[in-house]
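Give me structure tokens for this 309-residue protein.
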Amino acid sequence: MRVWGLLLALTFLGCEQQQAGPLPLEVLPGFGLTNLATPITLRGERFNTTIVANYDNEGESFVDARFEAWLGEHRLEEVRWIGPTEMRATVPAGLPEGAYDLVVKDPRGRIGRLQRAFEVWEENNVPQDMGVDLSGPADAGADLPFPDAILADLGVLADIGVCPKICTNNCSGGYCQMDCEKGCICPTGIPCRTICNDTGCTGTIDCSLATRCDVTCTSASGGCDGTIACPSKGDCTVRGLGSSAYQGDIQCGTGRCQVVCLNVGEAGCTGSVYCTSACACLVTGFEGPVSCPSACSDGCGVFDGCDNC
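Here you go.
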């Protein structure tokens, strides 16, 4: 039996050595503040565990899921293996400002890397344009940002490609940048974004008819204090950066809803998050009540895995 056990172990080891190492693809959220620890989710492929077999004592055999991860030279804390495509960890406070590569090491020592996976900022130095890609599918066209049907619905000529007047960026990049200082309504059928960095945003930010919506509120501007209505059938990301950054309700649709609050002091993000109809609800640092989808009995925290999209 010991001979067969040894042969089996050597065969398994040979197969395992032929497997490729971990392939990290995404970090959620992809940013944090220098003075705050940030819980994150790592998504990718080939987050493979290793079987450590003791054929003399089966009770001492176990599955080794001891992964390690770093941002640059900074080791992540509380690294937990969830499955072959997901892990969770905490970015420690104190990292200097900058963009960091993610390095993941699996139990057999194989390495995977994702370049510029995470950015760290000072609270008073959050960039105006955080490089959020809301352009959607590549087939939308480089010269004409929106399909003809959408342009027709907006009442403009498809051959001219006129961008709705509310969009302050002339729809550059395939999305509509809005000024929501006194509330705003995203045009029908296109992705929208607003960054409340100067004077804050009051009133409702209505993205209910958009295909996707991205809202950022910072405490330096006085934050956002109105309702955010996410796309009824699209994805939505809301960020609150700093103390008193967001005070209002967030109404999610049926898409993926992500709310990230990096709080300094008390009352960073208050109000309520309603995501009972969302296919995924990932909420970090929100201090008010959160209504999770019925399928997410464990909750909607970033470590709770509430993602059924």
